[in-house]
Write a structure and sequence with these properties.
The chain is mostly helical. It contains 20 helices and no strands. Helix 4 crosses helix 16 and helix 12 (232-249) packs parallel to helix 14.
């Protein structure tokens, strides 16, 4: 019996330790704020601060567990001298740590360049596009917006007409005030393609949304005023440059924000064009030119290509940075709670399904697939706990996919109307 005690004693002690930890875990939520403060120097990065502040995904939580195990093993080594039990304990602890830290091979592209190959001129065109961006908006060094046209997308013909007549002077004044922005659009349109230089979340620079919104609405309302005067060709000539620019910008766009911005502007223009066609005659040449431009922008299922999978390289690099940019204890513990490749592979499998469903317009199935994924990963997660939680936070809404297809339908209806004998 005595020969087995060195092996059994640690086992029974570990069972007692687990019971103690279970009791401690019950009161951890009461200590969340304290642990949050203690974890500040140990956070694996500033990208996921809100989620890493949750106790169960906090490195300090695992540091406490590891501390209990180490103290217990040292106590056995120094005082009990049960070497066999200590070695067994170390082997068990090492196996657990190795299992938590091991990451599987990556099955999806790890860099943005693999999905979006750069082309000559992309750097220059991207720099021109981002001259006005979220951090340095157009209004920082140019006249501020004095009037922002607002027409509800569901407004009737009579409501649009009343709005245009009521705000005619302000629309024309704002058009003149934004002459520098219109010159910038003309400069951008000299490029055959508008590139995107973003390679990670850290390098994503968002275009100035307010400027694009303002330019879209202003071009449309000014064109509608011209259509009211019977100047159909002149009205369409104002819209064509924006249609061309959005078509050149969309294929290289990296990240859902920019894709959403371009589709928003395209949809705004496509919704407003019927008013022009209702109130002014177009020459055969202008009809042909407008229909040709709309046809060039048609992408069919390609309109949602990489809508989901295109986010994976950004997600992977963010996780890899978060787990590798810490220092000291935080850097050591991060792999125990986050396996970047495993997270990307799981999310990539889901995104592959979502991309195929979006291409087939199966919008209800999109929601069902996302909900099924979340249900499958509910409960206690032992391995990759932080990475798993981040994949759940990264499941997008299907609204953008629906908007892309709505835009395609609007465009197809316009082409049919223009090409009707």
């Amino acid at each position: 019996m005595s020969s087995t005690r060195p092996l059994l004693s640690p086992v029974s002690s570990y069972l007692k330790l687990l019971l103690l930890l279970a009791r401690q875990a019950a009161v951890l939520p009461l200590s969340a704020s304290t642990l949050l403060l203690l974890s500040l120097p140990l956070r694996p990065g500033n990208m996921f601060e809100e989620v890493s502040g949750t106790v169960i995904f906090n490195p300090v939580f695992y540091a406490i567990l590891a501390g209990f195990a180490v103290v217990h093993l040292l106590w056995y080594l120094v005082w009990k001298r049960k070497i066999a039990g200590v070695l067994l304990g170390y082997l068990a602890l090492g196996a657990v740590v190795a299992y938590l830290a091991w990451d599987e091979p990556l099955r999806y592209p790890a860099t943005v360049a693999e999905l979006y190959p750069a082309q000559p001129g992309d750097t220059e065109s991207s720099a021109a596009l981002l001259r006005y961006n979220f951090s340095h908006p157009y209004t920082e060094g140019n006249p501020t917006f004095k009037f922002i046209p607002k027409i509800n997308e569901k407004a009737t013909d009579a409501e649009i007409t009343a709005y245009l007549e009521q705000n005619r002077a302000q629309i024309l004044a704002e058009w003149e005030r934004l002459a520098p922005a219109r010159a910038w659009l003309a400069e951008l349109n000299r490029f055959e393609r508008i590139g995107d230089s973003a390679v990670s979340y850290g390098t994503l620079i968002y275009p100035d949304y307010s400027l694009w919104r303002q330019l879209g609405r202003l071009h449309l309302t000014h064109a509608q005023l011209l259509a009211r005067e019977g100047k159909g060709d002149e009205a369409v000539s104002l819209i064509l440059p924006l249609l061309e620019l959005t078509r050149k910008t969309l294929p290289a766009s990296r990240g859902s924000y920019r894709i959403h911005l371009i589709h928003y502007l395209q949809k705004q223009l496509n919704q407003g064009l019927p008013y022009l066609l209702d109130h002014a005659q177009l020459s055969p040449e202008m009809k042909t030119r407008l229909a040709a431009e709309l046809r060039k922008a048609q992408r069919g299922p390609e309109t949602v290509r990489l809508l989901y999978l295109g986010e994976l390289p950004f997600f992977h690099q963010a996780l890899a940075t978060a787990t590798g940019s810490g220092s000291g204890l935080g850097k050591f513990l991060s792999p125990l709670v986050c396996n970047p490749n495993r997270s990307v592979n799981e999310l990539g499998d889901l995104y592959t399904v979502l991309d195929k469903q979006a291409a087939r317009r199966e919008f209800a199935a999109l929601d069902a697939a996302a909900e099924s994924y979340v249900r499958q990963h509910q409960g206690i997660v032992f391995k990759n706990s932080f990475g798993q939680k981040m994949t759940e936070y990264s499941i997008p809404s299907n609204r953008l996919a629906q908007s892309c297809w709505e835009n395609e339908d609007l465009r197809a209806a316009l082409i049919a109307r223009l090409e009707k004998p």
